[in-house]
Amino acid sequence: MLDRTIEEWGGHDDLWLFGYGSLIWRPDFDFAERRAARVHGWHRALKMWSRVNRGTVQNPGLVFGLLSGGSCQGVVFRIPAATALETLGQLWLREMPTAIYDPRWLDCATPGGRVRALAFTLSRRSPNFTGELPEARYREIFQSAAGRYGTSLDYAVKTLQELQRHAIHDRALARLVRLANSDLSAKADCGEAREPLYLSDQAASPPSRKLEKP
């Protein structure tokens, strides 16, 4: 699958990557440029099982997948052609250790024009797709699931905070984090006081500047 992706890219031009989840706040690679971006026909959803990074086989956690339908705001990163092949290999180890995603080249609208970017999408036929989960199941996962990179709740909160920092509003994610906040408030009422995970959509400070070259 990596060979096919490299062939489709060509290897001569700069490489664009579309981030919609943890890539936004933890890219782990050097890039020459980043821009706000929107893709149509796909949407971000916390509906992918994680049995290593944010959970275990016995207690799976959740991470984001890019599902067909709707639209999604995120960030695109431009990787210079000279380092793109190495970066792609490193990213593959992080995102595709068990070929859980379907890599696709998507047309992304940005303030600087349209770009063709690589995105890691999720099929609803994948065994890693959760389907629709009830609120009680999300609460259970947020309270207990953790993997080698931390908890599912921390992953969701960090993504929401970074989206808010870039003035990207994800109502579905904000609602899920509010569920976790309500559980923390209930624990506080029982004497287990903890700080709320975030204030609110309205309280989040918008970014002071547009995304730009770092």
Topology:
Layout: H1 2-9, E1 15-19, H2 22-25, E2 33-50, E3 61-79, H3 81-95, E4 102-110, E5 113-121, H4 135-144, E6 146-147, E7 150-151, H5 152-165, H6 171-189
Antiparallel strand pairs: 1-3, 2-3, 4-5, 6-7
Helix pairs in contact: 4-6, 5-6
Structure, described:
The protein contains 6 helices and 7 strands, in the order αβαββαββαββαα. With 214 residues, it is α+β, with helices and mostly antiparallel strands. The strands form 3 sheets. Strands 1-3-2 form a 3-stranded antiparallel β-sheet. The chain has a two-stranded antiparallel sheet with strand order 4-5.
Could you give a short description of this structure?
Helix content is 33%, strand content 30%. The chain has 214 residues and is of the alpha+beta class. The strands form three sheets. Strands 1-3-2 form a three-stranded antiparallel sheet.
